[in-house]
Specification:
The chain is an alpha+beta fold. The protein contains ten helices and four strands; from the N terminus they run H-E-H-E-H-H-E-E-H-H-H-H-H-H.
Length: 263
């Protein structure tokens, strides 16, 4: 395909106006760009869209041909059956516009699926939120997107995970753990191990008293109840509502991003 493209451009006399980069789009650092127009491999749609909208390059728009089902998920709004974590995370930083549907019969050879064209416009103003914390929070909420938040945050395993991350976050804020201890996610070999050979996370995991976990669970449920979120489902919440809830939880010392683990 690259050879065919180069030949066509050369035949038109435009070879000095085109630079072809033949590399893995997910692993390659993009050069500066302003506009994207692409028919991307459908199997990498999700990670490539995330790389575009959360990348460091500021661009005007990205016009993408996507599998129709994936496009519907990307365009979904709260209350739609297709509403999902991908739409939540993309729409935090970008607006997604539907352009047109493209029938599979418009391609040769004919693929098995229909397609859609969407246009992504990065937002000029972004909410004041820690992105790693936001991603971890939405992962927790949308693990079971149709389950009420009250039910999600009453699960013992989930409460234990959040208690661990919140405890580590508190230790970092107090200065008990600093960034050189490997907690930031930039691991220094051996630096996150205690004298018994257990990681900080494992040590906390094995030392959480039942009473402390129950108290922490009641704290979270109490916040959900006070803010009117206990009986609400993530699949029906807007980004504004999710941002508000995360801010209230963080203010109360409840955190979701475990910097001891890589993203």
């Amino acid at each position: 395909m690259v050879d065919v493209l180069r030949k066509r451009v050369a035949d038109c006399g435009f070879e000095d106006r085109l630079t072809v980069i033949q590399k893995d789009a997910l692993k390659t650092q993009f050069p500066p760009f302003d506009v994207v127009v692409a028919n991307i491999p459908y199997q990498i749609s999700s990670p490539l869209v995330i790389k575009l909208v959360y990348g460091k390059i500021q661009f005007r728009s990205a016009t993408l041909l996507l599998q129709k089902e994936f496009a519907r998920r990307l365009l979904a709004n709260p209350g739609n059956s297709e509403y999902n974590r991908l739409a939540v995370n993309v729409k935090l930083v970008a607006d997604v516009e539907f352009a047109m549907d493209v029938s599979k019969r418009d391609f040769l050879p004919v693929p098995k699926v229909d397609s859609s064209v969407v246009i992504i416009h990065p937002k000029t103003e972004l909410p004041n939120v820690n992105l790693a914390e936001w991603w971890a929070f939405t992962r927790t909420c949308f693990g079971k997107k149709n389950k009420t938040l009250g039910a999600t945050f009453k699960q013992k395993r989930k409460v234990m995970e959040i208690l661990e991350t919140s405890t580590l976050a508190g230790l970092r804020q107090d200065g008990t753990i600093n960034e050189d201890d490997g907690i930031s996610g930039v691991s220094i070999e051996g630096s996150d191990m205690d004298e018994k050979g257990k990681s900080e996370e494992e040590s906390l995991s094995s030392s959480e008293p039942e009473g402390e976990m129950n108290s922490f669970k009641e704290k979270i449920v109490g916040i959900l109840r006070a803010e009117g979120f206990e009986d609400k489902r993530p699949s029906k919440l807007s980004n504004e509502e999710l941002l508000h809830l995360l801010a209230v939880l963080n203010h109360a010392g409840v955190y979701f991003h475990n910097q001891a683990k890589s993203q």
